[in-house]
Write a structure and sequence with these properties.
single chain, alpha/beta, Rossmann fold, Nucleotidyltransferase, domain 5, 6-stranded mixed sheet, 36 helices, exonuclease
Length: 875
């Protein structure tokens, strides 16, 4: 399941942008519609890409706000809203109503204040927010759980800002955006700022002193040209900061359920889009929802209504329990949140039986019934999202013993590229049913459709040959991942604090060294100023330019590094600054205050290859190529004093899978003999004995080995190992001469994918590849690389998932205290008591190395230590 996301939209900002970006549009009766059309298209694009769980749109209400009481000239220079735009607000709100999206506005407050309050409320619930706006003021809201999508050009281009991006762009933290605006002012809002202080100076002062208050306190130390301005206008600076600060305490009566997005009311949308003469949107709705144009006032697709019976008497609850046990199978849907628990449950005993609605929140007996059914091994349970059901039950200290079918997981397996797989989406796609939204009727309808979906999706799994993968790997993995999330991983906050301080000092040292090498101080985070220093002042060769000047992106700096020592320092500065803001500082906000642990979320239904991903934090993205990045792992420690961290990492699993799938005798022989595969490849490619292979030869052979798995070209390899393209091409040709079976495998996989339209893993996981028959050469080449890589990477994912399921089951069966706490790529991490260490090492190695029989041995490297960083190899 994807993580819960709250999309918060700045209604005023986006409608103004749409109005100015879209040429005038009007209906045949003269109704102006361009802003509504542009806003709606932008909304659909964002919904497709983000798949939010919750949505709200905030609007301004009236021209006077609490800020006018502080400064009467606030926004005094704003032009009046054009009548042709003002008339579109009611139309837009009607569209949002039919989209079933909550809208908010409140007298005396701006939309920004509502947005800030909503984001803070969601943060308190552990929910990530994405703010969509065209107003840079919102950047002050960015935090570990709040990102900002800033609209750029027109209505299609957007730029995402997390803490790292704010730092990269401005060289300050998000809260300091307020201080910058306080100094420089804002002409659009008529915020005065300090006269004579522009953005460049404001940035420099805040980067050096941190806050406006510090700038004022240290004003006497400033150069004369700034000192006098700051001292004379300090009151204006403080006033401007106050005006620029978003109020995050707007008195709203909030509950996350009111923002939960159930999906659009398609028939109602079809009606209003027809009236507004949005022909493209009408066509899209018809295709999406299977609706017929309602020219005759009739819709083929209707909201599905399920009959249900609300049960509260203990006598009836007891009877339902008996019926469930006798049936041996139930469909179950739970309404609630992880924070508040279950509100009510709906269950159905058969496809044609009665659906019962149980008021769990109101009645303990109803909760007991749900818990008894879920924990009874005799009763198989069908649900839409098994992991979420496990979490909701966990909130009440209950569990689910016999998960029989997870509809969303089955749909993902059948189409891993599907962007929307909520139960409402599945009902619409597979059953042509529109589910009701909100309340008891919605929960009853959801559980009623589960029977139909199970029958249909189960049949498709059998037809595609993925039923074994589903029932032996993916479905049991749901419980494994839920247990890992609930267990969490302990974090040592003191180590994290020390790391933050040390990295901060390193950054400060790099800044001083960069200034020394440049011969002056400048804003290192400003591409314009950096370009001026490197190319105008220092005369370094210009690699490429952008529309606004010299390019100073990472690829340019890496190419320039041999030319001057300052370039390496700038690269190191960027890496450390992002590392600190995004990862080190970001981890603080993810520590659960109750458990003291980080409970990362594992996503089983996101990647097209079948690999797991994670968020909060994204463990796959911790930059372990940097020593400083690897050291972040030091903060992850055992749960209990005396316990140890055990890591188990598959050695070169993708190359071993390549050997097995290709059947190449040379490659298989090397692995069976236990040879170093990179040294063996170097010997083959460079035609020298293995004992004469140099470190440089081995390094290049390693790049070739792993490059082959990803379908690398001679151009790509030449960039990776920094040799001429012709030489890289020679290495690849030499590789294929020595490992001809690999070349045959690659050609075969591309041919099969082109013929079938998909490629498969060892356990028959499918990935559909429409790109492979594209007329566009670049697109087609991507499809071909995917046809090579997916069977290998996907098989590696299948193998480690299979191992996880078996290890988890064995740890439970033996009643061991050892916990599997993390999974990253090909590595599993365990929290192990010392007295179980010998047994666990043997168990883990046995189940990982024998997860699936291959023609070459699977090898697992075990490491042990007091934390995830300080682990050392053990037998």
């Amino acid at each position: 399941m994807s993580p819960e996301k709250f999309l918060i939209i700045d209604g005023n900002s986006l409608v103004h942008r749409a109005f100015h970006a879209i040429p005038p549009l009007s209906t045949s009766d003269g109704t102006v519609t361009n802003a509504v059309y542009g806003f709606t298209n932008m909304l659909f694009k964002v919904l497709r890409e983000l798949e939010p769980t919750y949505i709200a749109v905030a609007f301004d209400k009236g021209k006077i706000t609490f800020r006018h009481a502080t400064y009467t000239d606030y926004k005094a220079k704003r032009k009046a809203t054009p009548p042709e735009l003002r008339s579109q607000f009611p139309l837009l709100k009607e569209v949002l109503h039919h989209m079933r999206i909550c809208t908010l506005e409140l007298e005396n407050f701006e939309a920004d204040d509502i947005i800030g309050t909503l984001a803070g409320f969601a943060d308190g619930k552990g929910i990530e927010s994405i703010v969509l706006t065209g107003d840079r003021d919102a950047l002050q809201l960015v935090s570990p759980r709040v990102r900002v999508l800033l609209t750029k050009k027109g209505i299609t281009e957007m730029e995402e800002y997390d803490e790292g991006r704010v730092w990269d762009r401005y060289g300050v933290s998000p809260p300091q955006i307020i201080d910058i605006k306080g100094l420089m002012g804002d002409t659009s809002d008529n915020i005065p700022g300090v006269p004579g202080i522009g953005e460049k100076t404001a940035l420099k002062l805040i980067q050096e002193y941190g806050t406006i208050e510090n700038v004022i306190a240290e004003a006497n130390k400033l150069p004369t040209r700034w000192r006098n301005k700051i001292i004379e206008h300090r009151d204006l600076a403080q006033l401007s900061k106050k005006l620029a600060t978003i109020d995050r305490r707007v008195p709203l009566n909030m509950d996350m359920e009111q923002f939960k997005w159930p999906g659009p009311d398609y028939p109602a949308l079809l009606d209003i889009f027809s009236k507004l003469e949005f022909k493209t949107l009408v066509h899209n709705i018809i295709n999406k929802a299977g609706l017929e144009d309602n020219k005759n006032g009739q819709d083929e697709l209707k909201t599905y209504c399920a009959k249900y019976r609300r049960v509260s008497s203990e006598e009836k609850l007891s009877q339902i329990r008996s019926n469930c046990i006798a049936s041996g199978m139930v469909a179950l849907d739970l309404s609630g949140t992880r924070e508040a628990g279950i509100n009510y449950a709906a269950l159905s005993i058969s496809p044609v039986g009665t659906t019962y609605l149980l008021p769990v929140k109101e009645q303990v007996a109803a909760l007991d019934l749900v818990a008894d059914i879920c924990s009874d091994p005799r009763v198989k349970v069908i649900c839409a999202d098994g992991k979420e059901v496990l979490w909701l039950l966990h909130r009440h200290n209950r569990t689910l013993r016999n998960l029989d079918f997870d509809a969303q997981l089955a749909a993902y397996l059948l189409n891993p590229s599907m962007s929307q797989n909520s139960l409402a989406d599945l009902a619409l796609q597979y059953l042509q049913l529109v589910l009701p939204t909100g309340g008891e009727a919605a929960t009853a309808a959801r559980v009623d459709t589960l029977w139909q979906l199970k029958q249909l999706l189960q049949q498709k799994l059998v037809e595609t040959g993925m039923d074994r993968l589903y029932y032996e790997v993916e479905l049991p993995l749901v419980t494994v991942l839920a247990d890992m999330e609930m267990e969490g991983v302990a974090v040592d906050p003191q180590i994290l604090c020390n790391m933050a301080e040390e990295t901060g000092r390193q950054i400060e040292g790099l800044v001083l060294e960069i200034y020394r090498l440049a011969g002056e101080e400048f804003n290192i985070n400003s591409p314009k100023q950096l370009g001026d220093i490197l190319f105008n002042k220092m005369g370094l060769p210009v690699i490429k330019k952008t529309k606004t000047g010299f390019s100073t992106d990472a690829s340019v700096l890496e190419e320039l590094a041999p030319n001057h020592a300052i370039v390496d320092k700038i690269l190191a500065y960027r890496q450390l600054a992002k590392l600190k803001s995004t990862y080190i500082d970001g981890l603080f906000g993810l520590i659960n205050p109750t458990s003291g642990r980080i409970h990362t979320t594992f996503h089983q239904d996101v990647t097209a290859t079948g690999r797991l991903s994670s968020s909060n934090p994204n463990l796959q993205n911790i930059p372990i190529r940097l020593e400083e990045g690897r050291r972040i792992r030091k903060v992850f420690v055992p749960h209990r004093p005396g316990n140890l961290i055990l890591t188990a990492d598959y050695s070169q699993i993708e190359l071993r899978i390549l050997a097995h799938m290709s059947g190449d005798a040379n490659l298989i022989g090397a692995f069976k003999k236990g040879q170093d595969i990179h040294t063996r490849t170097a010997a083959e490619v460079f035609n020298v004995p293995m004992e004469q292979v140099t470190p440089e030869m081995r390094s290049r052979a390693k790049a070739v080995n792993f490059g082959i798995v990803y379908g690398i070209s001679d151009y790509g390899l030449s960039r990776d190992i920094k040799v001429p393209r012709a030489e890289a091409g020679k290495y690849i040709r030499s590789y294929f001469e020595r490992y001809s079976g690999v070349k045959e495998f690659i050609d075969r996989k591309i041919s099969e994918a082109r013929e079938k339209g998909y490629t498969t893993t060892l356990l028959n996981r499918r990935r559909y590849l429409p790109d492979i028959v594209s007329r566009n050469r670049v697109t087609r080449a991507f499809g071909e690389r995917t046809a090579i890589n997916t069977p290998i990477q996907g098989s590696a994912a299948d193998i480690i998932k299979l191992a996880m399921v078996r290890i988890h089951g064995e740890l439970k069966r033996r009643h061991m205290a050892t916990k599997m706490i993390l999974q990253v790529h090909d590595e599993l991490i365990f929290d192990v008591p010392p007295d179980e260490l010998t047994e666990v090492k043997k168990l883990v190695r046995e189940y990982m190395e024998n997860a699936l029989h291959l023609d070459v041995p699977l090898v697992v490297d075990l490491k042990l230590g007091p934390n995830w960083y300080d682990v050392r190899k053990v037998p």
